[in-house]
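From the methods appendix. Each design record in this collection lists the tokenized structure first, followed by the designed amino acid sequence. Records were kept in a plain field format so they could be parsed without special tools. The example shown here is representative of the layout used throughout.

RECORD:
FOLD TOKENS (308 positions):
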């Protein structure tokens, strides 16, 4: 069964729950365009999160979900709100959500944890997850070590629940590869940054469009907080501090507010421009629906062309 059939939607795609970007308006726009929109709770207070869910309901009649980053300081409250508001899908990032899964499932939600490795996939499958989102290190934002190519088939072999591939998917060739690796659909983030509807500052969009294949870098590996961003003054300074032995506290202090500076102020020098390695493939701003249609049609076209 494909992801769209599982969710009762048109396209087999989930929009990654991008903190500060995935607002109620953006999630609704994605769901209205035929994929699954997610409200990104990272960076939201519990009150804003609850309001966002309620606002999203007024903006779309289609299913939508929420993304909860497990390192959020108010994660317990966010988790309770997701259950109370009976959202269709809960995805989680950066950790093990097992303790929240029973309450979410009781509320009727489907639970799709994002996992960077086989061990966590097994843990969440045992805890009752409905599917896992296997996210490779090509992705924008917080990342693990393994590539999508190596991770997805190993996860597909290790668990009995469906696998959704994330990381490095921006056109139909990559979608076809994800299916070949054992996925039932894809979660995408970077390719949606350059959608017409994405609420990031124009300078951020331009920086993604300008990026080439090697223009992203992972900061924070030495302090166990790896994040993939576009190279800029901030990433260079961060890496220099890391090399000089700065600890996690100092580095966190240095990046305080940097994602908001990128998203809202369009500060491409000291802002944190999260983006994945596929940024180098993106050359045009397009409506969300066109992005989803082209992913699907590009996949079918490539499959028909293959001579195996
Ligand atoms: C700007 C940006 C912010 C992100 N923030 C989050 C987040 O808050 N929570 C999360 O689980 N994943 C986050 N991600 C990862 C996405 O949900 C998704 O898995 C990833 O973008 C897929 O890989 P791709 O960037 O190659 O499309 C973010 C990605 C980007 C590009």
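DESIGN:
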């Amino acid at each position: 069964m494909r992801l769209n059939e599982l969710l009762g939607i048109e396209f087999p795609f989930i929009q990654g729950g991008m903190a500060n970007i995935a607002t109620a308006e953006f999630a609704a726009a994605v769901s209205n365009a035929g994929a699954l929109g997610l409200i990104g709770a990272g960076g939201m207070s519990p009150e804003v999160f609850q309001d966002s869910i309620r606002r999203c309901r007024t903006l779309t009649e289609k299913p939508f979900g929420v993304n909860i980053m497990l390192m959020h300081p108010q994660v317990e409250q966010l988790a309770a709100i997701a259950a109370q508001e009976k959202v269709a899908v809960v995805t989680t990032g950066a950790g093990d959500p097992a303790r929240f899964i029973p309450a979410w499932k009781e509320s009727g939600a489907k639970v799709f944890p994002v996992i960077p490795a086989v061990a966590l996939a097994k843990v969440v499958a045992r805890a009752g997850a409905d599917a896992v989102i296997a996210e490779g290190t090509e992705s924008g934002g917080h990342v693990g070590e393994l590539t999508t190519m190596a991770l997805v088939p190993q996860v597909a072999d290790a668990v009995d629940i469906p696998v959704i591939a994330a990381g490095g998917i921006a056109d139909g060739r990559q979608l076809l590869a994800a299916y070949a690796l054992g996925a039932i659909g894809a979660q995408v983030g970077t390719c949606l940054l350059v959608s017409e509807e994405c609420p990031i500052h124009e300078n951020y969009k331009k920086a993604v469009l300008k990026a080439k294949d090697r223009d992203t870098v992972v900061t924070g590996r030495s302090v166990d907080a790896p994040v993939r961003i576009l190279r800029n003054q901030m990433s260079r300074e961060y890496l220099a501090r890391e090399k000089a032995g700065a600890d996690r506290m100092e580095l966190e202090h240095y990046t305080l507010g940097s994602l908001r500076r990128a998203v809202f102020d369009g500060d491409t020098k000291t802002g944190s421009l999260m983006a994945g390695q596929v940024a180098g493939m993106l050359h045009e701003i397009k409506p969300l629906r066109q992005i989803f249609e082209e992913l699907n049609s590009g996949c079918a076209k490539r499959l028909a062309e293959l001579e195996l």
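APPENDIX NOTE: The chain has a mean pLDDT of 96.
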